[in-house]
């Protein structure tokens, strides 16, 4: 029983051999057993039960002397796990049989009758075990073929199953299995009933112990985390969709261009493709786009006319615009701000009802609901994309064209609705931004203001009428539109509605007053349905037929469209020539300024300058392949040694050379070289190749700057492109493993077989020691101050600290003079002697101060001795060759030279491998990275404006833009005169 509860359900059974009652305690319950393995719970977490929650005693032992006998009985009783399997297979019959066999085998002791349970008790206990067996039998499905096995086979199978039971249970606990959930549930019910708690309470208590939170808090946290993930995914999806749409439009544009070229070649026409005749309103819309780009702040005194749609939020202004465009082209929401950026809609007549964005070639068929839905989704995406940096509204204009039969030709601009109160999810400056944006558009003296007022609310709640009255106090370019008059008939006073349409209620003035119905409040209604509803309402409405105050031409969206279009074109004819004359003067002034400042240069905009800079950068990349192999090896080896020299001296050469014997030197060198080549050297080599490639490319760009034809206007752009490409560029991964193999093989060679290589190694050793010696001399000059000669000839003086160091150095020099082979560290006696000698001279120093002074003094002494060995090694090659035949008699100490020869050989093979890698692969990979950066910068107008700066660029950009606007204005005026 103990083994079953311990192995199967994680319950620990404790027994007592004292005279106290034998108690079966459940000291710990494994929650992974109760509820199965659950994600997020610690596998070692246990639910501890207090000792007071122990089960009732099963047995009572009155005498201590019979402890051993009772232990035997308990050991037999603990084999009840056989009974679990027996109950699952054969029921309670096997249980009784086993019990009788045990009773017969016991000695005849009458006093045990009071202790052992009788048959009735065993029957009750067997029934409880049979219930557990039934649960196991229901959860574990046994193959029916086992029932046909003989008793011998069955016994054999039981024995095998008994041996494998613990492993199977352990595997079942670590691997979730639906077939054992019944047994888990049975035990959870048993524990719940025993301790008077529900399974939900046990789970909640475990959650509190495991994570320190309640189930409600855990559920709320998961909900918030899920909401955050959903918002992040939605934002990421919008960005991806915008990129996809941009790429799709680019492909469509390229496809259209290729199709035109194909038609030209097919018809053998030498001239360019024939121009498509544009409509008058399209030409005017292009002029407005150019003007908006030229004057984004609307500070010019003269502007071309456009219809500005303004109104309070949810007043129905967007619905009015849709009714005029005869299509539901804008996204809709309930009680939230949907228009977050200005939307310029150019309406024109055409055979098909279609819409397209001005920066895209795709057309949306407005007669199909699916394409209407796609158009609305695209408008919403563009609006959300324009709102960046935590803002709620944006000034970036979304331009689109709508064509269709019967549409009035005009340009309308839908602005965000004016709000009176900001909500917590809006930016702090939302209200002021909307008011400022609305004022900017209405301040255009030639803008037609379409003032939208909600007829279903009190007139006193209007915010837009006061704003319109301030911008157009005389009402010479304002048209008032009262929406939702069907609701106004039911809710408002009819006399107040008539006063509004008569212009007698609001203090503002207007050219005309109109009443429209733009829907029944249903999002899915089509424009045809809305128009039919509007016609029926005005035909049957008592409000507009009871008196003659409201004229028939003042009602319906159709009449509104005609009136707005008529006023629009009248203002266009009055202002367009005046605008063209203003741009002629601006163009003349700019051309004069350009000729005076840049007489020998052509006006080039940022796009043209960028293409020119792009060509120069790619030409320099090509020049990388013209660098000779010798130059590459020289640059790489110098860069490589700069990275390796400090490690070679400080971690390999100096520790080995100061070890004291040749054998120790060689052993230490071999170990450290092996570790170095296996771990750090390949990565350092790759870094050297990377830096050499970068250095050469930058040097080519610097050389190009010295050319007489160099244009410094590209310097910032080139530097930014190169820096970004180098930052993204990385050396090929497999190069490190390749270098490791080459370097390890090279370091295995320890014998110099060539006189030329010996001389090169000696020179390499000598120059390296001189370099380190010079660095040490510079350190000592800073530490000890100027020398005597410098003090007399150059009038330099030592500080008190330097004089103190110099006195310590004098004592340390005596130690080195007395022992030229002194070890690198000072002994305790030597430190004491130096300190006492300084004390006699009145100088108090501690041992650490002496050690700091000793380090550079001894280092210079050691390097000077190494330099002498380098001088001796110049003519020692033949002695080395002769003695190396018999290493036992070799007395020549040339380990320093051999070490540096090995280092030099590694550097040679590494340099050769890196050079081949640069020429064959890395230069092309860098070229690919630079092209990628250039392509990104080409599509980023902000980058161009940031990197291509100066008066020359800004003046050329303005002049090009003014010329383009003037040309379009003249083209439009000619077409307008022909239409007359």
Primary descriptors:
mainly alpha, two-stranded antiparallel ribbon, disordered N terminus
Q: Any overview of this molecule?
A:
The protein has 980 residues and is mainly alpha-helical. The strands form 2 sheets. It has a 9-stranded mixed beta sheet with strand order 6-5-7-4-8-3-9-10-11, with helices on both faces. The chain has a two-stranded antiparallel ribbon with strand order 1-2. The longest helix is centred in the first third of the chain and has 52 residues, at 215-266. It is elongated, with a radius of gyration of 47 Å. The N and C termini lie far apart (108 Å). Mean pLDDT is 75; it is low at 1-66, 80-92, 139-150, 172-188, 190-195, 268-276, 296-301 and 885-890.
Helix/strand class? mainly alpha
The number of E-state strands comes to 11
Low-confidence parts lasting 5 or more residues at pLDDT below 50?
A: 1-66, 80-92, 139-150, 172-188, 190-195, 268-276, 296-301, 885-890
Largest sheet entry: 9 strands, mixed
Question: Can you count the helices?
Answer: 34
Provide mean pLDDT, rounded.
75
Q: Estimate the strand proportion.
A: 5-15%
**Neighbour order of strands in the largest sheet:** 6-5-7-4-8-3-9-10-11
Question: Roughly how many Å is the radius of gyration?
Answer: 47 Å
Helix content: 55-70%
- Any idea what the shape is? elongated
What distance separates the N and C termini?
108 Å
């Amino acid at each position: 029983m103990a083994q079953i509860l311990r192995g199967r359900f994680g319950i620990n059974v404790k027994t007592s051999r004292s005279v106290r009652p034998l108690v079966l305690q459940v000291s710990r319950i494994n929650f992974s057993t109760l509820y199965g393995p659950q994600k997020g719970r610690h596998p070692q977490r246990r639910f501890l039960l207090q000792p007071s929650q122990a089960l009732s005693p099963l047995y009572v032992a009155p005498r201590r002397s019979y402890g051993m006998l009772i232990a035997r009985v308990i050991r037999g009783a603990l084999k009840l796990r056989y009974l679990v399997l027996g109950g699952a297979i054969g029921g309670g019959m096997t249980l009784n049989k086993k019990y009788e066999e045990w009773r017969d085998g016991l000695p005849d002791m009458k006093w045990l009758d009071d202790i052992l349970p009788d048959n009735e008790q065993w029957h009750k206990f067997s029934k409880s075990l049979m219930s557990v067996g039934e649960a196991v039998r229901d959860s574990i499905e046994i193959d029916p073929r086992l029932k046909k096995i003989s008793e011998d086979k069955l016994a054999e199978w039981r024995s095998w199953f008994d041996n494998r039971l613990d492993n199977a249970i352990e595997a079942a606990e670590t691997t979730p299995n639906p077939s054992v959930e019944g047994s888990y549930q049975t035990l959870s019910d048993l524990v719940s009933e025993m301790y008077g708690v529900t399974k939900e309470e046990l789970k909640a208590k475990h959650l509190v112990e495991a994570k320190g939170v309640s189930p409600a808090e855990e559920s709320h946290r998961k909900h918030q985390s899920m909401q955050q993930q959903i918002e992040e995914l939605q934002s990421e999806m919008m960005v991806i969709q915008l990129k996809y749409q941009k790429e799709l439009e680019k492909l469509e544009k390229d496809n259209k261009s290729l199709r035109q070229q194909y038609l030209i070649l097919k018809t053998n026409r030498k001239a360019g493709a024939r121009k498509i005749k544009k409509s008058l309103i399209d030409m005017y819309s292009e002029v407005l786009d150019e003007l908006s780009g030229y004057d984004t702040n609307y500070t010019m005194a003269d502007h071309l006319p456009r219809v500005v749609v303004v109104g309070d939020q949810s007043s129905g202004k967007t619905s009015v615009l849709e009714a005029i465009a005869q299509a539901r082209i804008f996204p809709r929401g309930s009680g939230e701000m949907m228009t977050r950026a200005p939307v310029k809609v150019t309406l024109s007549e055409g055979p098909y009802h279609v819409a397209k964005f001005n920066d895209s070639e795709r057309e949306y068929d407005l007669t199909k609901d699916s394409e209407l839905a796609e158009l609305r989704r695209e408008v919403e995406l563009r609006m959300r994309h324009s709102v960046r940096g935590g803002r709620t509204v944006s000034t970036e204009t979304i331009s689109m064209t709508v064509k269709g039969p019967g549409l009035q030709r005009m340009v309308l601009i839908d602005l965000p609705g004016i709000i009176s109160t900001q909500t917590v999810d809006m930016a702090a400056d939302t209200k002021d931004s909307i008011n400022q944006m609305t004022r900017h558009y209405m301040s255009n003296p030639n803008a037609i203001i379409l003032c939208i007022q909600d007829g279903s609310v009190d007139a006193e709640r209007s915010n837009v009428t006061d704003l319109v009255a301030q911008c157009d106090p005389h009402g010479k370019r304002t048209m008032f539109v009262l929406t939702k008059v069907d609701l106004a008939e039911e809710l408002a006073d009819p006399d107040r509605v008539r006063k509004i349409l008569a212009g007698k209620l609001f203090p503002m003035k207007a050219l005309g007053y109109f009443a429209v119905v733009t829907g029944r409040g249903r999002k899915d209604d089509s424009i045809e349905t809305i128009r039919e509803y509007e016609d029926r309402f005005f035909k049957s409405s008592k409000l507009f037929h009871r008196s003659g105050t409201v004229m028939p031409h003042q009602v319906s969206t159709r009449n509104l469209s005609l009136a707005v279009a008529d006023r629009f074109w009248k203002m266009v004819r009055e202002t367009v020539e005046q605008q063209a004359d203003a741009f002629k003067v601006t163009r003349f002034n700019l051309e004069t300024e350009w000729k005076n400042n840049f007489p020998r240069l052509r006006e080039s905009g940022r796009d043209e300058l960028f293409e020119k800079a792009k060509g120069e950068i790619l030409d320099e990349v090509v020049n990388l392949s013209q660098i000779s192999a010798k130059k590459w090896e020289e640059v790489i080896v110098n860069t490589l040694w700069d990275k390796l020299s400090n490690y070679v001296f400080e971690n390999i050469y100096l520790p080995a050379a100061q070890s004291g014997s040749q054998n120790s030197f060689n052993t230490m060198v071999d170990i450290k070289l092996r570790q170095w080549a296996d771990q750090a050297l390949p990565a350092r080599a790759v870094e050297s190749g990377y830096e050499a490639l970068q250095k050469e490319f930058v040097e080519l760009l610097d050389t190009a700057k010295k050319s007489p034809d160099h244009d410094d206007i590209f310097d910032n752009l080139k530097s930014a492109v190169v820096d970004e490409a180098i930052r993204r560029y990385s050396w090929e991964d497999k190069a490190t493993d390749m270098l490791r193999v080459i370097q390890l093989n090279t370091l295995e060679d320890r014998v110099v077989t060539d006189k030329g290589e010996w001389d090169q190694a000696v020179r390499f050793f000598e120059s390296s020691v001189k370099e380190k010696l010079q660095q040490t001399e510079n350190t000592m000059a800073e530490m000890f101050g100027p020398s005597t000669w410098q003090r007399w000839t150059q009038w330099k003086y030592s500080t008190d600290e330097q004089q103190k160091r110099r006195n310590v150095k004098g004592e340390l020099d005596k130690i080195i003079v007395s022992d030229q082979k002194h070890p690198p560290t000072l002994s305790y006696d030597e430190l004491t002697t130096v300190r006492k000698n300084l004390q006699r001279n009145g100088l108090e120093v501690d041992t650490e101060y002496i050690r700091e002074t000793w380090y550079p003094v001894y280092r210079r002494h050691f390097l000077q001795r190494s330099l002498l060995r380098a001088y001796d090694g110049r003519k020692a090659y033949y002695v080395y060759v002769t003695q190396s035949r018999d290493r036992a008699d070799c007395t020549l100490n040339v380990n320093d030279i051999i070490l540096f020869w090995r280092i030099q050989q590694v550097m040679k093979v590494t340099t050769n491998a890196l050079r081949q890698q640069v020429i064959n692969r890395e230069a092309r990979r860098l070229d690919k990275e630079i092209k990628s950066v250039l392509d990104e910068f080409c599509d980023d107008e902000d980058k161009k404006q940031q990197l291509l700066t100066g008066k020359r660029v800004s003046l050329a950009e303005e002049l090009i833009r003014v010329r383009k606007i003037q040309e379009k204005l003249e083209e439009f005026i000619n077409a307008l005169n022909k239409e007359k």
